[in-house]
Amino acid sequence: VWRRGTTQSFFLSSSLSGRGVADGGRVLRRSPRGRAASASQRRGVSTANNGGLNRQRGEVEEEERALRLFMEGFSMLDFWTAVGIHTFRATAAATKVLRNMAGAAKPSAFQPATPHVPRAATSAKALESSIYVLDQQKREWAGIPSAEKAALLERCLENMVSVTDGVARETVKAKGGYESGLGEEIAAWSSCCWIVREAIKAVAADFKPALGKTRKIKGTNQVACEVFPRGLLGLVFLGMRGEVWLQPGEEKARQGRPKEVAGEEGALWLILGAGNQVPAVIGDIVHCMFMCNAAVVVKMNPVNDYLGTYLESSFQPLISKGYLQIVYGAAEVGKTLVEHPQVDAIHMTGSDRTFDAITWQGRPKPSKESKEAPPFTKPIHAELGCVTPYIILPGNWSDEDLDFQARQCVSGKFHNAGHNCVALEVLILPENWHLRSKFMERIKHYLGQSQNRVAWYPHSQKSYDRFSAKFPEAKRFGAFSEDTGQSPWLLAEGLTPETADGSAENWCGVMQEVRIKSRSLSDYVEQVAAFCNDKLWGDLSCAVFVDPKTQKHSKKEVDFLIQSLKYGSVAVNVPTTIVFAVPNLTWGAFPGNTVYDIRSGNACVHNCACLQNTQKSVLYAPWKAPIYPVWNFDNVNLPSSAKCMVKLFAFQNLANFAALAMQALLGAP
C-alpha cells in the first residue's frame, strides 16, 4: 500500500534517469501506518459514521490508483536496479569503514616521467615489403568467413590480457604516474580489451548482434536504439543506459557493416595511429580490419611507439598471416605511406591540421562556400579533436552532490594530463544558480589537492603558454617544477560566452568557467545549446550534469538540451571519457562536416552494435554511481580494480565479475 511523498522520501527516486513512481512529479511511498491514506485524512478532516462506506471505497480507490501509477511509471527492472544501486552503496560504505579501521588508504606517490626517445624509422625497403605482403593478402582477408575472423581476434585478445602489466609500466614511465599509480593505464588497456571482446561478438553474429529496445524520440522523427549495457555488464554498469540515435527519418534500426566496407577484392588501408592514447589505436585497428574488412598497415605515432612491441605481440595471429603490419617513423614515413599507390584509404585519429595537410597537400584551404575539389583524392576517415564542454543544469544539490560531481568534472580534465580529445575544456554554469559559487569552490579544491601533471605531449606547453597569455588573470593551482616537469592547473573564471575562447582545443591542463545569464531554465538550455554548437570548435562529445529532480520536473528542458546538442556523443552525469570507452556506442563527430571545415572529423568508429545511418550516442548514468567510480582521479584501489576490469571485459563470466566487485568496493578515498 502506497501514498504520495517527495522524490527524496524513497530510494526508487535514484533510478537511472530520474524515472520513478511518478505522480505529478512525486513518487509513491509506503504509508507509515501501513495503509493508504485518503486526501481527507491527510488534511485531518474527520468523517461521519454514516460516511464509513464511502471512506472505505475511497481508500480502495486510492490503493488501486497508487498501484496503477506504480505499474505504469516504474518497471520491475527500475525497481531491482534501484535496489542494486542502494545495496552496492551501503556495502561500499561499510567496506570503507572497515578498511579505514586498519588505516586510511592513500593515493600513490607521484612518479616522474622519463622522456621517450622514438624508435628508429622503418626502412624504405621494409615499408615496401610490408605493403607488398598486405597487397597480396588483402583479397584473402576480405574472403575469410566471419566465424574464422572472430576466432583470430579471440587469440589476439588472449595475448592482450597477457601483456597488461607491461603496457601499463611502459606508459607510466613515459607519461608519469599520479594518484592511481598504474591504475589509469591499466584501466585504459581494459577498454582496449573491451572493444575487442564486443567486436568478436559482432563479427560472430555476422554484424547483427542483439539490440535492446527502441523508442521514438518524443517530438522528433528520430529513433533511439538501446545498446548498452547487455548481459553481465548490466551488473557492472548498474543504472546506466546507452542509446544510439539514428538519423532523422530513419524509421527502424538497420544493422550491418559500415558503408566504407571493402568488397570481395579487398582493400589496403593505412592507419595513422594516435599518439596520446592506445585505446584509439586498438579501436582503429578493430574498426578498419573487422568492421570495414580491410588489410591494414599501422604507422605508430613516435610519441607512443614504445607500445609497438606490445601491439605486435597482441596481434601476432593477424601479423603472421600478412593481414596486418605495424611500422614506425615520423612525418616522412607517413607521407610515403599516404602517397603509396597500393594504399586505398587513410584512417586517422589526430589533429585537424594533419587532415588538412593531407587533404589540401600544402595548398591554402578554400572557404566553406568553395566548390573546389581537394587535390588528394583518396578517402580519409578522421576522428579529430574538440573543445569539450561540460554543462551544469541548476538544481538543489546537497553538499555531497556538489562534491561528487566536482570530482567527476575534474577527473574529466585530469585523465591523461588533459591530452585527450574528450578532456574537459569549458565548464558551463548558470550565473544565477544559487549553488554556483559552492560548486566552483569544490572544483578549485580538487584542482589544488590533486597532483600536478607533466605536459608530456609535444607542443602542449606552447598551448599552455598561449592560454596563460590569453587569460593572464587565470588562477594557478600548484607551481612549475623544473625537476619533474609538472605544470600547475590553470582555471580562467567568470567568463561569458563573449569573453571565452572556444576557437581551438587546448590539449593541456587548462580550463575555462563560462557563466550564462538566463531568465529561466528554458532560456538557459537554449543559450547553452547555441553557445556549444556555434561558438565552441568541434562536435565530438560533451557532458551534461543534471540531478534526478530536475530531470523529472523539467523533462522538457532537459530533453531539448540533449536533442539540440550537435555532438557525436552526449554523456549524462558521467565524464565524456566513459562514452568513448563503451564499444557498443558510436564514436565520432556529429554528421555533416566537410573537407572545407572538418572540425572533429568525418568518421564513426566503435559501434559494435553495427547500427547504420547513425547520428549520435547518448549515455545516461545515475546521479551518483553505486560505488566509487573507477574513472575518478582519486580512486585509491584503481590498480587492483583495473586488473579485474581487464579480465572481465575480456572474459565476461561471473567469477571475473565477483573479483571486480570485491576490488571496486575498496576504491573510495
Query: What would you call the structural class?
Result: alpha/beta
Share in helix: 40-55%
Return the average pLDDT rounded to an integer. 89
Give the assembly state of these chains. single chain
End-to-end CA span = 40 Å
Overall 3D form: globular
DSSP helical segment count: 22
Q: Strand fraction band?
A: 5-15%
Radius of gyration: 26 Å
Which sheet architecture does the biggest sheet show?
11 strands, mixed
Numbering strands along the chain, what is their spatial order in the largest sheet? Answer: 4-5-6-21-18-17-12-13-16-15-14
Low-confidence stretches: 1-51, 69-74
According to DSSP, the number of beta strands is 21
Q: Could you give a quick summary of the protein structure above?
A:
This protein is α/β, with parallel strands linked by helices and 669 residues long. 41% of the residues lie in helices and 15% in strands. The protein has an 11-stranded mixed β-sheet with strand order 4-5-6-21-18-17-12-13-16-15-14, with helices on both faces.
